[in-house]
Amino acid sequence: MKTSTAFPLRPLLLSVLLLATLSACGSPQYVRDTEEPRLDDYTMSLRFDREDLNRLYDDNIDELMSSSIVRQWDRGDSPVVAIFPMRNETSEHIGQQLDTLLSKFETDLVNQTAASVVSWESQPDLLNEVRRQQSDAYDPTRLAAYGRQLGAQYFVTGKVYDVADRDEDERRVQYFMFVQVINVSTGQIHFQNESAITKGLIR
Amino acid sequence: MSAFSSLTTLPQHMLSACTPASKFWPAVLVAALLLVMSGCASYTDTLRPTRQSLSVGDAESAIAELNTRLEVDATSELPANLKENRALFLLERATLLQAAGEYEQAARDLMHVDDHLEWVDLSGEGAAQVMRFIYSDDSGGYRAPAHERLLLNTQNMINFLAAGRLGSARVEARRFYVLARFFIDEGTRELVPGILGLGYYLSGATYEASGEYENAARFYARAYLSGVWPEAGPERLEDLIALTGYRGRDLQDFGVEDDHPLFFSARSRERLSGAEYRARHQQGDVLVVVQSGLSPYRQAARVGMDWALGYSQYSPYSGVYLSSDQRRKAMSLHASGVFNTLNFPVLTTEGLPPRRQVGLSVDGRVAPHSARVNVADQVHASWTMIGATAAAAAISRAVVRAVAGEASRAATDAALRHGGTEASAAGALGFLAGLAVKGTMSALDTPDTRSWTTLAADIDLFRIKLPAGRHTIAVDVGPHDDKRVVDVLSDEFVLLNFSALR
């Protein structure tokens, strides 16, 4: 029996060329949402993205705007309301996203209610104090002190908790958000709404 | 039929499926390609200039070197992706940025890595991953062992506490605890007790500074039971227990019962108020962290088969890869001289600075108490568990290789005995193919030398209480010293990190 000693080089070379071409196609490129309409649909991390913030905003804003305390503000003297940082009690670094969410609430409170909204962000000393001791943000005595400094009667704020699980390479984070309106002088909670979001990394 | 005996049939299948000439050429080419690839610098070689710069205290050059590896122009930039070991380069850069006091940038790097770093559990099914972990080619994703994974969040707690960002430090404490729970099985906890204890202690300090005393008690209790406690006695913890009424019911993994002395003595005390606790423990409260030396790193080495056979028995999971049949066969092949060495990653301290005692003085007075976390020993312990399993896997592969090579040589001999020109050519190809099979598998066994190489060998903790005012904190580590001036104003917690003293 004759045996061929010729090795089939052509298919191999073609395969190499194809792989090289494919690898070139795989190089990253920057895109904007008008070029890739589904860009905002992709989940890129376990933290909050715009889609999550929109969901949380939708879950809360209607409840807040139709709450008895906001109706009361609209009926009487317009109170001074301060937006206070949300407390992040989760295992994810979502502080900045929570600030974004509060800014959205702030916009609606300014534009759609009788409240006079003051910003603690414009007061550097208070800002530093809040950042340094954010964990004490819910200490009523401190809240009252911050309130007096701002001349605020109410705080709009909140807190976020999570239940985080890992199993081998998979991760899941269940978020629970509570948005609150607190009376500065009494510490009484006049409004509270809960919303939930789950994000995961699955294989 | 044993796994080993089934493997011996491999060359016969190959012979029957292909013509003699065509069947081995791909293997020869692949072997050649792999041998060329194996000439590339390993991770250890790549990081050598960085380690050398760090060893002589030139952090700037070390960071610049890493920026080149990360393909970025400045430390303010993150790499475009974490492929090709960039996750590890970023870990290394974060360590150096922390040493340079750039805590925000160090924290950003670690947070970025944290989102993408996978890890290897040493227990149960994790053992089955070790083969892929150790013997994957170097371009595959890096999988961190338990000590590195736990230290990532621990180091970031140091960054955030040093930067005074309590909220972010609490996030890291929670992330640390989620992982600690993941690694909490008996085997892993025994390997890294100090690293777990360090994470627990820093978590306790974070919650204590945040005014969350119940959580502080939980984590301090774990640190204390892990042996990481830088104070003379447990009064801080006992007072926390008295303040919160914490009973340690979540400490089952430490075998704590109700009659544990810690809780027994705390129960007999009067309940403490928050104000009393703050006055007693949080006025002028300073935690000094000193990171010194460099942990051992991995290096490719040819090790003797005797050593490898003995070493593989250190891991309870080695049986996943090396059955008793295979072990017998390996010993028999070794005795007959078929294979004597194995290409294998080993830990080394070559070129690293010696381990040194750390001293701390405050305004010229020596601080009497400290807790030392011996990271280097735990890197060794963690690596022994992984490495011993990997050694078993490598031996198993070497046995297959030897058998495949022997079978190919047998085919060659048979062809040559048959005689004739074509038979000789086929025989020669068979001989080359035998080498190729061995060479290919040998090249696939390129040891992965990746690890977090800029980790300190020792982390010393000093907890000191200072009166209000300005103080000078001085640290000496052998021939090196460093000092900082700190203003103590109130009950604000201060963490000082010294980690440039390598």
Automatic annotation (TrEMBL), chain A:
Coiled coil: none
Keyword Signal: yes
Gene3D superfamilies: ABC-type transport auxiliary lipoprotein component
Signal peptide: 1-26
Superkingdom as given in the UniProt entry: Bacteria
Keywords, ordered alphabetically: Signal
Claim: Lipid metabolism is one of the keywords in the record: no
A Pfam family of this chain: LpoB
InterPro entries, per database record: LpoB
Protein name: Penicillin-binding protein activator LpoB
Species annotation: Lujinxingia vulgaris
Automatic annotation (TrEMBL), chain B:
Domain of life per record: Bacteria
Protein name: Uncharacterized protein
Species: Lujinxingia vulgaris
Source taxonomy: Bacteria, Deltaproteobacteria, Bradymonadales, Lujinxingiaceae, Lujinxingia
